[in-house]
Amino acid sequence: MAMRNCFKGGRRQEFSREEGSISVLTIGLFSVAVALLILITDVASISVSKQSLLHATEAAAIRAVHSVDLGSYYRGNSGVSVPIDCERAYQVVADEINTWIEEESDIKRRELQEVSLTRFSCSGDRVELSTSARTLLPFRLPQGSALVDIHATVEAQSERIP
Question: 5 lies in a domain?
Answer without folding.
Answer: no
